[in-house]
Amino acid sequence: MKKKFDKYWLKLQDMNKILLIAVVLDPRYKLLYLDFFFPKLQKDKDLVAGMVKEVQKIFLKLYNEYAEADPFAAQASVDATRPKVDNLAEIDEEDSHAANMKQFMMLRKEKDVIEIKDEMDKLQFEFDCLEF
Predict the structure, then answer these.
(1) Is 101 a member of any domain?
(2) Structural domain span for residue 47
(3) How many domains does the chain have?
(4) Helix (H, G, I), strand (E, B) or coil at 93
(5) With left for phi above 0 and alpha for psi between -120 and 50, is residue 81 left, alpha or beta?
(6) Quick check: is 54 in a domain?
(7) pLDDT tens-digit series, residues 9-68
């Protein structure tokens, strides 16, 4: 079982890109999550940057296919809402996942001002799955 796990999850470049797209679509994490956690999994900065660019390219391609299929859907937008995390101090520091999530949430708070480059970025930040 571990052999199969290592086959798909041991190397960053062998990870299933569709699972990474699912993380980008999650309004809590978006692309910043990959920027934060990939360096923890892989020390090679060039490989990490390449993987983030590859996931972004796949995401843009997927978005463009849907935008071409339904041009009116690309024009719709919803109000941006952020999930609130008020009790960061209550997270148990001993739990490594919780500590990583706390670091990620702090990074996210620091990067509140985000440059929107194209329509895909705009929709990514305005997406609210409950309003969809």
Answers:
(1) no
(2) 2-81+116-126
(3) 1
(4) coil
(5) beta
(6) yes
(7) 777 777 888 888 888 888 777 888 888 888 888 888 898 888 889 988 998 898 888 888
